[in-house]
Specification:
With 310 residues, this protein is an alpha/beta fold. It has a single domain, classed as Alpha/Beta hydrolase fold, catalytic domain (Rossmann fold, 3-Layer(aba) Sandwich), CATH 3.40.50.1820. The chain is built from 11 helices and 8 strands. The chain has an 8-stranded mixed sheet, sandwiched between helices. α3 links the parallel β3 and β4.
């Protein structure tokens, strides 16, 4: 189906006088991306707290969202924002974290992991793993139940969530659920959707190559590392991973690799809902204020989280 009318409006707004991402500097693109986040309507949640936690190379900023209706100890979702491992922060991920807090009725801990190229792979991943371990170890302080711990993220954040689930499978803490929203799973960019959706749908093939180059080096041997490309993990590494949900968009270069990863998780025995939303683009989940399918996807994700954690 063609892109939906509200998505076309969003595309026209996003592309008006826009310099291609792949032609910008990381600092310049971060500023432009932050300005986009200002268009979001900030949803009220019960309590929002900013703090820092110990990381492998210094303090890691986090933001804790607690819905007002939570009474007592409940589940927790550790969330990693998108942005190709190069852009994004707690502010750009704020709208999505608030939406999930409200829709799922659980505590969300959003993680401001280190960004490339200043901090290339595996810096962001190391921060992500450390944050999940900290949340589990600090469950009593946070007022959450460490046995009902989920990880999630969108785009590069979905990549980090998927890899964290692999990294912590044997060592713990146990992860109950993984929410992967249009995740990057194959940094070799080999899937057909990279050609089908190369241009004209917000995230482009050239932009992805730019992001990957800053994070791990486009076409490098690191791109075959399952810690960069979880789709390349051997079968044994996927066995015993937690159930989850993989959300993809029809007009997204990352569509096929996300769906392929979900199918590999299923083949390894995980109960995973792989769900494509037609007529929408990469980023639609975060655009839930003005793309109805984004709000639908948030509600679907929230239902999956509630079923797994409550």
């Amino acid at each position: 189906m063609p892109v939906k009318p509200e998505v076309q409006v969003a595309l026209e707004f996003l592309e008006a006088d826009a310099v291609p991402w792949s032609e910008q500097t990381p600092v310049g693109l971060r500023e432009a991306y932050s300005n986009l986040a200002l268009a979001a309507v900030r949803k009220d949640v019960g309590v929002v707290v900013d703090r820092t936690i110990p990381g492998p190379a210094g303090e890691v900023p986090i933001r804790i969202y607690r819905p007002v209706e939570v009474d007592g100890v409940g589940p927790v979702l550790v969330w990693f924002h998108g942005g190709g491992w190069v852009i994004g922060d707690l502010e750009t991920g704020d709208n999505t974290a608030r939406a999930l807090t409200l829709a799922a009725g659980l505590v969300v801990v959003s993680v401001d992991y280190r960004l490339a190229p200043e901090h290339p792979f595996p810096a962001g991943l190391d921060d992500a793993v450390a944050a999940v371990r900290w949340v589990a170890d600090s469950a009593a302080e946070l007022g959450v139940d460490a046995s009902r711990l989920a990880v999630g993220g969108d785009s590069a954040g979905g990549n980090l969530a998927a890899v964290v689930a692999q990294e912590l499978r044997d060592s713990g803490p146990p992860i109950r659920f993984q929410l992967l929203v249009y995740p990057v799973t194959d940094a070799l960019m080999a899937c057909p959707s990279y050609e089908e959706n190369a241009d004209g749908y917000f995230l482009t093939r050239d932009a992805m190559a730019w992001f990957i180059d800053h994070y791990a080096g486009t076409g490098s041997e690191a791109c075959r590392d399952p810690r960069v490309s979880p789709l390349h993990a051997p079968d044994a590494a996927l066995a015993g991973l937690p159930p989850g949900m993989v959300i993809t968009a029809e007009y997204d270069p990352l569509r096929d690799e996300g769906e392929a990863y979900g199918e590999r998780l299923r083949a390894a025995g995980a109960d995973v809902d792989v769900r494509r939303y037609d007529g929408v683009i990469h980023g639609f989940f975060a655009m839930n204020d003005f793309i109805p399918d984004g709000e639908t996807a948030v509600q679907d994700a929230a239902e999956a989280l509630r079923d797994a954690l409550f």
